[in-house]
Every structure is written in structure tokens, then in C-alpha cells.
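Hi, here's the filled form for the chain we discussed.

Project: internal
Contact: R.S.
Residues: 298
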Amino acid sequence: MKRRYVTVDVFTETKFGGNPLAVVLDAEGLDGAEMQAIAREFNYSETTFVLPPADEAHTAHVRIFTPARELPFAGHPNVGTAYALARIGTLFGKTLPGTLLFEEAAGLVPVRVLTKGGVITGAELTAPQGLTLGSEVPAATIAACLGLDVGDVAVDRHLPVVAGVGTPFIVAELRKIEHLAAIRPDARAFSELLPIDDTNAVLIYVRSGRGVLNDRMIIPLPDLREDPATGSANAALVALLATRAPEQDHLFKWKIRQGVEMGRPSLLLAEVDKVAGAVTAVRIGGACVPVMEGLLDA
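And the returned structure, exactly as it came back:
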């Protein structure tokens, strides 16, 4: 059977930057094993599969696969899928609204389509879950996995910790941007010291100025791989930072640069609503560009 697919680069305004995503538009009839095989064939960090929603009030049921496993929620797949569908304009016989609602394993994900001058430019998701925190991770573990000195890991604001808003990640801060560039992932350390709380993906960040973060994401899939733009992990990061901030009622905004060191620069724009001392919403989005389209035999 011929199935349509498109690919887009997410969190970038420049083709061949950002994080590539494959979107299989005609996924009805595929089972999980077939979706996993297709995702492995594309070999992107994620591939999405668009299915009819269980509730007709929603836009679609979206399943997300890495080359190794299915994810309950992820950031750049939602942003890229919404952008790809919005450019088509219709789905399952319906004209698409300005905000799409995706059914996913982690919950319902609203994704607002971004436009400029009437042209669709990207999308912005709202995380399906509030911030959850798991185990704290020793700074020595982070240093060993990243090939750094333990003193390079910042622990004054928070210890490295498992955090998520739908999918868990280990989040750790480094002291200097030079430390970010010096990362040399150690596959043996990853294998021996992780996972913790069922995750072995590590988001490492540096504060680069007021409202500006630089970070990198290392993910074993099962081989070590760097991700150029990770919306779900950065959503967890900014939720964590907002939770630890002293402001009780505030709209936090961040610009996040990722993928620079691997030659796929990405820009993620994040917002967090904090009301009466509690984080009430986390949004993350950015620009996208189309790259390829074609037919898949599956």
C-alpha cells in the first residue's frame, strides 16, 4: 500500500537545520511493529504516525516512535506534525482549526499553529502534563557520562534530577558554556551508570544570559546519539526553572539554543505560566521548514 509522508525540519527557519521529523500521513492499518520498522528505516530521532482520533472533537491520534521505541509524548514531533498538517489544511475530511488537538499516550496535546503575514511558519505546543520530578542524580554520574570533571556540573541551584512533563529526562546544569562544548559522551559510563527512573537521556544546559539557555541532549538509542532539538526535555527544564524561581505570579520566557555543536542549530521558544507559586502551563514552539514528501510502500 502506498502511504504519503512528509519530512520537515523543526525549530529552525533554515532547511537542513533544526531537528528533522518524518510524518506518515496515512497510517491507518499499520500496527505498532510496522510503525517501529518504518521509524527505524527513516532513522530520524522521531517519526510520527497520524491516525483518526478516538474523539471526533480532536484532530488526530498521533503515535511517536524513535528508531528503538514508542514515546508517550515528545516535543519536536508535535510541533512538526502540526506544521505539516496545517500546510495541508484538511485532515479526515475536515478543515483544520488554528489549534490542533492530538491524542497521545501522555494525554491530550494542544498545538497552536504559528503564522506570519498569513503564512504558516511553525507551531507551539502546550505540555500534556504538569512537571514531575524523580530521583536526584549524583554530579559524578553526569560528569562520567559526559566526559567532564565533576566540578563542571553546577549544583548550587539544583542537583541533576529526573524531570518530565510527559516523558522523563535527566536534567543537569553546567557552570560554563565552554563545558557544554567540551562534552565527550562515554558510552561505557552511560551503560554502567544509567538508566535512573527508567531514563538514560540527559539534557545538559548552561544559562547564557537573562532568558537565554544553551543546551545539548545525549540519548542512547541504543547507540549514543545527540538530538539537535528536544522540545519535551526543554519543556521539563523550563518548568523546573520556573518552579525553583522566587516569583509567585509570572510569565517566564526563554530562548533556547540547541544543536549548535553538531551543526544543526535550533531555536526553541518557551513560556511558563506561574500562578500563586505553582506552574500552571508550559508551552514550547518554534519555526519549521518543509524538506521532502513522497510515498512509502507499507
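Let me know if anything looks off before we file it.
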